[in-house]
Amino acid sequence: MSINHNAEAIREALRWIRSTAENDIRIREGGKSDGTSAFTSLKIAKDFFGIADGALRLLETHHSDISVEVSVNKLVSFLTMLPDFKLVTEIDGSYGHMGATLTDAILQSGIDYKSVVKPRVNNIKTQYPSASTTSGFLKTMSEHGLDRMINFKGAKVERIKQVAEFLQSEQIETEDEFAVWLSDDQNVIRIKKLKGIKDKTADYMKILVGQQGNAVDRHLIHFLEQSGVPFESYQKTSEIINRAADHIGVNRSLFDHSIWKYMSERS
Predict the structure, then answer these.
(1) 148 or 14, which is more confident?
(2) Alpha carbon distances (Å) from 96 to 101, 136, 177, 253
(3) CB 27 within 8 A of CB 35
(4) How many CB atoms lie within 10 A of CB 59?
(5) Average confidence (pLDDT) over 130-134
(6) Distance between CA 217 and CA 225 in Å, rounded?
(7) Which of 13, 118, 122, 242 has the fewest CB atoms in 10 Å of its CB?
(8) How confident is the model at residue 13 (pLDDT cuts 50, 70, 90)?
């Protein structure tokens, strides 16, 4: 009998104990016990439920850790088979200009970065120095119109404005303040409640303000799939990439961009 089979048998037994105890608790607390309960008292049923539930959580965590470690090893091994894979030494971001940061963060999704996003980010940074703070960006927008400032039309223009207004309400004026604000997980949850801001955009914002990490997109997912690591969830893919970066001793954000650049040049 294999180790995996034994582990699954243990999990099944613990699930049965937990389910039985949960049912027993429900019957006893409902005052409907008929003497056929699996446990001799409510306290014992609750104790067994807690033990089984805790053991299952530990087993699942251990299984997840092993799965991630196996995936990391696959990814690192795959890198050694790519003679043309290069680690970048710099990435865009850390503009010191809120207008540029928010424009980059919102425009990048689903749009060619090199030909569309980057020129507009560079233009707003150089042509509108007054937009370096959040309030200054909003004031400049009201005077010139964001669509004209970045030569872009569509829903993303309004989205940039909405994010800027939200950050102003949070009293975030500079990129440094934004970086500190994003380091609080609760703030990340809040900004993701804004329309169009999902996991990837929130993580990309972190990278733009100088935090280490990755922003999982189709390029990163396809790269992992080529290495033999299937996509399961955004969070797990992000963890695998971060751990691989740590394993080979490189900056997480640079590793993220290295994969993105390698795949985007081949798409």
Answers:
(1) 148
(2) 8, 13, 11, 18
(3) no
(4) 15
(5) 97
(6) 12
(7) 13
(8) confident
CA distance 65 to 59: 10
- Whether 181 and 172 have beta carbons less than 8 Å apart is answered as yes
Residue with tokens 């829903």: 155
The model's pTM: 0.74
- Cα 21 vs. chain centroid, distance in angstroms? 36
Q: Which of 186, 171, 177, 200 is nearest to 105 (CA)?
A: 200
Q: Is the pLDDT of residue 2 over 50?
A: no
Dihedral (C-alpha) 133, 138, 143, 147: value to the nearest 10 degrees?
110
Burial class (CB in 10 A: 0-12, 13-18, 19+), 258: buried
Burial of 211 from C-beta contacts in 10 A (0-12 / 13-18 / 19+): middle
SS3 201: helix
State residue 109's pLDDT score.
87
3 pLDDT tier (thresholds 50, 70, 90) = very low
Q: How far apart are CA 98 and CA 85, in angstroms?
A: 33
**CB-based contact 208:93 (threshold 8 Å):** yes
DSSP string, 131-173: GGSHHHHHHHHHHH-HHHHHT--SHHHHHHHHHHHHHHHTT--
* pLDDT tens-digit series, residues 56-113: 777 666 555 558 888 999 999 999 999 999 999 999 999 999 999 999 999 998 888 9
